[in-house]
Design a protein that fits this description.
It is rod-shaped and about 75 Å long. Helix content is 23%, strand content 23%. It is an alpha/beta fold. Strands 5-6-7-8-9 form a 5-stranded mixed beta sheet, with helices on both faces. A 4-stranded mixed beta sheet has the order 3-2-1-4, with no helix packed on it. It is built from 4 helices and 9 strands. The chain starts with a strand and ends in a 6-residue tail after the last strand.
Length: 159
C-alpha cells in the first residue's frame, strides 16, 4: 500500500539532516513511491505524539502503590484513611500522598498518626511534594528531627 502522506524535508532529531517521511495510516516509514499527498516540512522537527523527554516513571509507579489522600477534607479524615489502609496493608512503611493541609480545618500532628500506628512508620507527602507528615515511628526510622506536628518541609505546611 502506498503512503497516503509524505513529509518532505522533516528532521527526526535536533541537528539531524532533513529526510522524507512516508506515512501510511498510523505507521511512519517505507517507500515514498505512489504517495497521494506531499507536505513540505521545511526542515521542521517531527516528534512522536504524546512524547515527553522528562518522565518520572519511577515516582509515578511508586505513587500508584501509595495511599491517595487527595480527597481528605481534614487531618482527621486523612488519619481515618490511613487507619483503613493499615488494616489491609502489611508493608513495613505506610506511604501516602496528595494531602492539602492548607485547606483543612484541623492541624495534622504526629500524635494523630501515632494513635493509629504507634510502632509502624507512616509517611504522607503533600500534594505539591514540598512537605511531608510523619508519625513518630517514621521520624525515628528515617532519623528526622521530631516535631510535635510530625512535619518536614516548607514552614506553611503542617501549620
Amino acid at each position: 500500500m502506498p503512503p497516503s502522506l509524505v513529509l518532505r524535508g522533516a528532521r527526526t532529531a535536533p541537528g539531524a539532516g532533513p529526510v522524507d517521511l512516508p506515512i501510511t495510516g498510523d505507521r511512519i516509514g517505507g517507500d515514498i513511491a505512489g504517495s497521494t499527498e506531499v507536505v513540505d516540512a521545511g526542515g521542521r522537527l517531527v516528534l512522536p505524539g504524546l512524547w515527553d523527554a522528562h518522565v518520572h516513571f519511577d515516582q509515578w509507579t511508586l505513587a500508584q502503590a501509595a495511599l491517595d489522600l487527595s480527597g481528605a477534607t481534614s487531618a482527621a479524615h486523612a488519619v481515618a484513611l490511613v487507619a483503613a489502609r493499615l488494616a489491609g496493608d502489611h508493608a513495613p512503611v505506610v506511604v501516602a500522598h496528595g494531602f492539602r493541609d492548607g485547606l483543612w480545618p484541623d492541624t495534622p500532628t504526629a500524635a494523630a498518626l501515632d494513635a493509629i500506628a504507634p510502632a509502624r512508620p507512616v509517611v504522607a507527602f503533600s500534594a505539591d511534594l514540598h512537605s511531608a507528615w510523619f508519625n513518630t515511628a517514621a521520624l525515628q526510622r528515617f532519623s528526622l528531627h521530631h516535631t510535635p506536628r510530625g512535619c518536614c518541609g516548607k514552614p506553611s505546611s503542617c501549620r
